[in-house]
Amino acid sequence: MKMAPASKGDNKKAAVDAACWMFNIVTSVGVIIVNKALMSTYGFSFATTLTGLHFATTYLMTAVLTRLGYIQPSHLPLRELLKFIIFANFSIVGMNVSLMWNSVGFYQVAKLTMIPVSCILEVIFDKMQYSRDTKLSIALVLLGVGVCTVTDVSVNTKGFIAAVVAVWSTALQQYYVHFLQRKYSLGSFNLLSHTAPAQAGTLVVVGPFLDYWMTSKRIDKYSCSVVSVIFIILSCSIAVGTNLSQFICIARFTAVSFQVVGHMKTILVLILGFIFFGKDDLNLHVVLGMIIAVVGMIWYGNASSKPGGKERKSHSLPTSRTQKHDLSESSENDEKV
Q1: Rounded Cα gap, residues 337 and 333, in angstroms
Q2: 334, 248 in Cβ contact below 8 A?
Q3: Per-residue model confidence (pLDDT) at position 316
Q4: What is the residue range of 43's domain?
Q5: Distance (Å, whole) CA 72 – CA 189
Q6: How many other C-beta atoms are found inside a 10 Å radius of the C-beta of residue 253?
Q7: In a domain, 273, yes or no
Q8: For residues 139 and 74, what is the distance between their CA atoms, to the nearest angstrom?
Q9: Is 108 in contact with 149 (CB distance < 8 Å)?
Q10: Contact (Cβ atoms closer than 8 angstroms) between residue 118 and residue 255
Q11: Most exposed among 7, 80, 133, 325, judged by the fewest C-beta atoms under 10 Å?
């Protein structure tokens, strides 16, 4: 029995999905490489402040697009915005503090736990069910990334607490992106136009103090050069794409899928770090881990797309026809912009 050929609609969706993933991977890896050069070569070690500048640049982009009419006005209740900002800022600060207080190995282990935590959130709030193959593919991805990134693992009490805060706040922030877009029929640009200015304002104000606490360096004492300013501008420009693509990918898929496929960025960062920075840690052990992780990602994509691979028992956010139309319209607007 011959299988029916894929419809044009399915082919278009697959092409757009692939483009969204590539957009996120390229911009995420790009901003990491630029930041790495900025911090290691030019001594700009103010990570939290730099993140605030990223969101300020993102806000300028959404403001210009809104003014030009590409982003339509939308509404997000203040209480929902405040919840999102709390999750998002705790995620950023928590990750930075976790890296400062923990060994690199334990920091990587903590990052790996975001996938099971995101699964827990989806099971609790979205009544999501995963097939055996989907669970096993996630485990294979975790194993592969763990093999190629986890080295020395040492932990202390305050480092463990920072890691827990970082993992849960990041998982909640990513889940909340999907939740808010479904509940309030917001496109990715709309949601960014609400959240970016609030994040920029809080991080630009708090960032210099937090960076001083972490590095004992004051940002007002930093000696800027033309090249370092160019790198900062480049970092902010690429980060606009990173912030936008994250919202688009989570909206089109889920936080768990975003985390699983997102580990491709970890692998690419390792490869590009070896190419551009000449590090000698791309050995057989690391390459084996990369292969395992990539096999797991391919398996996850295949397993989760099959019937019963990953599905909701019941919709926790029932939507009317009008809401569904709005969601479809928001997605189309994202693609057009």
Answers
A1: 6
A2: yes
A3: 47
A4: 33-316
A5: 9
A6: 18
A7: yes
A8: 39
A9: yes
A10: yes
A11: 7
pTM: 0.82
Structural domain contains residue 180 = yes
Number of structural domains the chain divides into: 1
| Residue 336 within a domain | no
The answer to whether 241 and 23 have CB atoms below 8 angstroms apart is yes
| pLDDT at res. 82 | 95
25, 268 Cβ separation under 8 angstroms: yes
Contact 248, 181 (CB under 8 A): no
Q: What is the pLDDT of residue 329?
A: 47
Which segments of the chain does DSSP mark as H helices, in order?
Answer: 8-42, 47-67, 78-101, 104-112, 114-126, 132-149, 157-183, 188-215, 226-252, 255-277, 284-305, 321-336
Distance in angstroms (rounded) separating the CA atoms of residues 82 and 75: 14
Q: Is there a contact between 98 and 163 (Cβ–Cβ < 8 Å)?
A: yes
Angle at 92 between CA 336 and CA 101, to 5 degrees: 150
Q: What pLDDT score does 56 carry?
A: 96
Residue 82 burial (C-beta neighbours within 10 Å; 0-12, 13-18, 19+): exposed
d(CA 35, CA 235): 7
Is position 3 within any domain? no
**10-residue mean pLDDT series, the chain (337 residues):** 55 83 89 88 92 96 92 92 95 89 81 89 89 91 85 79 93 93 91 94 94 92 92 95 92 84 77 66 78 89 83 53 43 53
The answer to whether 243 and 196 have CB atoms below 8 angstroms apart is yes
Residue 47 tokens, joined: 């990570």
